[in-house]
Amino acid sequence: MSSKDIVLSDLKLAIEQLCLHLKIDKSCIWTDHFERQLKQINDLIEYGYVEENLYELSSSVRAVYGGMGSFNDYYYPHQSKERNELIKKYGSSRDLSSKVYDLALKLKQSD
Asked: Which residue, among 68, 67, 73, 88, has the nearest Cα to 21 in the 3D structure?
């Protein structure tokens, strides 16, 4: 398994965990974006990829970060038992958001 395969696998896991958080908020506009990224990752893992695919994925994931009204500004203040369990198990959505961004950026870096 190459280092890119490991980063891609880690990114998949981080996005899966982030999506669990986002789905709690029925009005979250970002869930679809991350689910599309997850589908793309699954396709790359299943069918293979070239470096350009990883650059495109990295850019697509990171496109919602930065600027006013971006995903960085998303905050879901409501506490629930389900949300607290997710935080205990995977960390906060903010922590996962940072992890997703960092892993996506890492896909662009050379081995």
From this structure: 88
pLDDT tens-digit profile of 59-92? 999 999 988 889 988 877 678 898 899 999 999 8
The two tokens of residue 61 are 């994931």
Residue whose structure tokens are 């050379």: 110
Q: How many residues does the chain have?
A: 111
8-state DSSP, 111: -
Give SS3 for 15: helix
pLDDT digits (tens, 9 = 90+) for 26-66: 889 999 999 999 999 999 999 999 999 999 999 999 999 98
Backbone angle region of 48, left / alpha / beta, with phi > 0 → left and psi within -120 to 50 → alpha: left
